[in-house]
User: What shape does this take?
Amino acid sequence: MKLLNPRTRTLLYTGILALAYFVTGKLAASMLGLVKTEPSPVWPPAGIALAALLLQGRRMWPGIVLGSVLLNSTGGVPSAVIATSAFSVTLQALAGEALLTWSGFSTKLDRLRDVLALVAGAVIGSTFLGSILGNLGTCIFGWAQWSNFPRNWWTTWLGDGMGILIVTPVLLTLKHAVNNFKSPLKKPIISSFITFFNRQNNQLPITNRSHTFSATENRYNLLFLIINYSEIALWLTLLLSVSWLFFCSKTQAAIAQYPLEYLPFPLIVWAALRFQSAGAIFAYSIVSYIAIWGAVQGGGPFLAKSDNLKQAVLFLQAFTGTIALVALMLAAAVAERQQALVEVRRTAAMLRDREASLANAQRIAQLGNWDLNCAALTATDNCEESAEHHISNIELRWSNELYRLLGFAPGTVKPTPEVFLQAVHPEDRELVARSQRQAMLQRQAYCINYRIVLADGSERTVCEQSAIESGAIAATVQDVTERHRAETALRASSDRDRLLSEIALRIRQSLDLEEILNTTVAEVRQFFKADRAFIGIVDAGGVHLPSPVYAKVVAESVGAQCRSLLGWVLADENLLENQKTFYANNRVRSISDTASIQLSVPIAQLYSDYQIRATLNVPIFLGDELFGILAVNQCSGPRQWQEFEIDLLEKLATQVAIALQQAQLLQQVKALNANLESQVEERTHQLQQKMHELQESNRLKDLFLHAVSHNLRTPVMGMLILLKNLLNKSPSDSLQDVPVSRSILQRIVQASEHQLTMVNSLLDAHASEVKGIVINTLPLHLPSLASAIIADLEPMLAKNQATLTQDIPADLPQVKADRQHLQRVLENLLTNAIKHNPPGVNITFKAEVIAVETALSYEENSQALTSPNNPLARCIANGISAAGDRPRIGETTQKNQETLAKFNLDGSCKMPRYQGQIGNIGSKLPGVTVKMVRCTVTDNGVGISAKQRESLFELYVQDPNSRQLTGLGLGLYLSKQIIKAHGGEIGVESTPGGGSTFWFLLPAVKSDEPSFSIL
Assistant: This one.
C-alpha cells in the first residue's frame, strides 16, 4: 500500500469499503431471512461505515454511498428509495464521526469517556437521525406503509446501533493491533527455547555470538511467553465452548427459565481484567456473533423463553447491548486504572530521583534542614518552664545532611532541639535556643550565624534561617565556614587597603624630599606598632653622599626606650655591594629572631648595638635603580611577621617611590621654569626676524613681478604693432616687399598675442590674490553674449572639426554679470573643450534656471558687504591702478564714479544703515530660495581623471595632461575667481573616456528688480 500514491490509495480504500458494505449487508439479509421492506435487527454495515470514517477520514464517504447503492440496487428497490437510503446511511456515518471527533474520541477505547461518547454519539445519536431519514424515504416513495413506520424505525434504530456497538470496536481494535503487532518469536525467545531444551537434555547450550543474554532473563521470557499464551488459549477455549453450548443448542423450555445466557459474563470480565480493551471487545463480539448465529439457526435461550420472533429479537438485542456496554466500560475502567498506576509509579520514581538529587545537592552545598509541624506544640500547662521543657523534647525531622553537619551519623540520635543544642558552641547556645523558641512559640522567623563544635573539637560556622508557612516551621542550616573566613579576610584586606591609602595620601601630600621620608617612617611605625622604622638610602637617584660614605640612614621614627639609628652610615663597600645584590631582585628580608640565625659580623654587630631583635626590610626602587630600603625593627623581642604585613610594607615602599619621583619631577620643573623666560624671549626674537624676512621677500616678489611683466609687455607690444603694420601694408604702399612670408608673420603675431595674454593673466592672477577681482555687474542677455563668442570661435571650430551647439531657452532671464569677465570665462571653457580634445568633438553649451536654497550668517553677510569683490566695495581707494598701458581689472568707469559720489564714500566703505537690524536677529539669517542660471559646457571627449579634477582650478598647476588654457595654468583659476566674485559657483563633472561637463552658476535678474549699473 505504501508504494501507491495517495490518490490511488484513496480510491482503493473506497472500493474496499463499498465491497465490505455490500457483502456484509447481503450476508445479514440472507442470514436473517429479511424480505424487501423488512428492516434488520442487527446491521453490521453501519458499524463498518463508521469505523472507516474514524480510521481513514471523511474522504471515505463515497465508499458508503457506493456500497449502499449496490446493496439496494440488487434488491429491486426503486431509485428514489436507493438515493434516500444512500443519503441517510452516509449522513448517519458522517454525523457519528463528527460527534465523536468533537468529543475528543480516541479509537483505542482506553478511556471511559471514549466508551460513553461511542454509545451516546454513534450508537444512539447518529442512528436515531439515520433511521428517521431512511424510513421517511421508504414511506414517502411508497416502498413501505406508513402504518409500519414506528416498528420499522425502532428496528432500524436498534439494528444500526447494535451493528455499530458490535462491529465498530472490533475494527478499531484490529487496526491498532495490526499497527502495533510485533512477533514474539524474536531471537531472545528462540534462544530461550533452545536453552531450555538443551538444559533438559543435559546438553551444552548453543551460543549465539551476536546476542548474549543472561540465563535468568531468558528463563523469565520463556515462562512469561508460555504462561501468557496458555492463559489466552484456555480463556478462548472456555469462551467458545460455553457460548456455543448455550446459544447454539436447542434449549428446553424448563432450562430456558434460568438466565443461562449470562454464564459467559465471567469470561468477558476475565478478558477485560487480563487483556484490557482488546480482549473485552473480542470477547463480547464472539459471544454476540455466536448468540446471533444460534438465534438465526433456531437455537439458544432467547427463542425458548419468548412467545414470538419479535420478542426473541428484542431479548437478543438487549443481551448483546448489555454485554457490549459492560465489557467496554469495564475494560476502559481497567485501562484507566492501569494508566493511573503507571503514572503513580512514574511519579514515585520521579519523586525518588528528586529526593536523591536534593540530597546530593544538599551534600554538595553542605546544607541541611529540619522541619516541625506546629500541631505538635501542645504544652501541658501554661507556665513558661513547662513549655520550654516540652519544646526541648519535641521530635523534629532532620535531613541526612543535617546529621552529618552536626557530627552525627544519620538516624543514630533522636532529632530533638536539646540534641541540636549539644552540638552548638557554648557561647552561641543561648542565641540559638532563643531564636528557635521564638519561632516555635511566637511564630517569628529568624536568620542567625553561629558556631558548632564537632566531635574532634574543630569548629565550623553555620548559617540558619527559618520560614513559617501554613502551620509548619522549616529551617535550613548551611556550613558557611569558608565563606565566613573569606569575608573576614576580605574585611581585613579592605581595612589594610584603606589604611594604606590614607598613609599613602599623607606621604604624597608633600613634595619636599625630607618631609616625605620623615612622614613615611612615622606612619609605618605607628601602623605596625613597632619600636623603630627607618629609611636608608644609597648613592642613587640623584642623591649624592659625601665620600667615602656609600649609604646612610636619613629618616627614622624610634621609641624612647630604643637607641636612635639616624645618621648611621655604611662605608664598607663590599658589604654595600652584598646588600645591593640581595635587594636588586626586589627581595624582602624578614627575620623573626635575629638571635636564632647566622649573620655576618658587621650585621650582627649592628643588630646588637641597636637592640634589633626582629626586622623586616623591603627595597625602594626609583625606576630600575635601587634608592634605599624601608625597614621596621622590633627591639623589645622576637616578632613573627605576617604575610599581610610584608605585603603592606612592599606597597608602602612603592608609594614612597612614587612620592620621591614626584619630588624629583618638581625639582626638574623648577629648573625648567628658570630657563623658560629666556627661551621665550629668544624664540620671540627669532620669530620677529623671520616675519621681517618674509615681508621683505614678498616686497621683492612684487617688484620682480611688476618689473618682469613690464619688460615683457613693452617689447611684445612693440613687436606686435610692427608686425601688424607690415601685414596691413599693401604692395603699392611699400617700395620693398615684406622680407618674410605672410604665414610666418601670422604665426609670430599669434605667438605674441599668446605671450601678451599670458602676461596679462599672470598680472590678473596676482591682482586677484592681493586685492580681489573687481567686477561691474549689469543685467546681461546671455544668448547674445554666447552667440558673439561662438562666432569668434568659428575658425577654431572649423580647424578642429568640432561641433558647437547652443541649448538656451528663449525665455531665459538676464543674469547679473560683468560682460568682459563672463566672456573671458566662456572663452576659456569653450577653448579648452576644443583644444584639449581630439578633432570631431561635439560640444554643447546649455543654460537653464534653477532654484537654490541659501542662508547667510551675519558674519558672512558683513564680509560680503565689505569685501572688495562686492559691487558696493568698489569704493576702495586702492582699487584704481594707473600702471600699464591697458585698462586694469580694478579700474572704475565714469558711471561707477557717479555711484561713489552718490553714496558719499570717502575711501572707507561703511555698512548700510540696516546692518544693525540684520545683526539683531541672530547669528544666522533666514533661509531663502533664489533663482540662479546654471550654464554648462559639455563635450564627449577624452574626459578628466579624478586626480586632475582635484587640482583643476588651482593656481600654477604644472601637469602636461591637465585641461588648462595657458601653460601657467591660469585660465580655470581666473574663471573660478571671476565666478566667485559674481556670487556663483563653478565645478566639473567628468569620467575618463566619457567626456566632461564644466558648469557654473550666476544670479538671475528678478523680473521686478530695476536695472542699475552697479549692483
Notes: Residues 643-728 form the longest helix (86 residues).
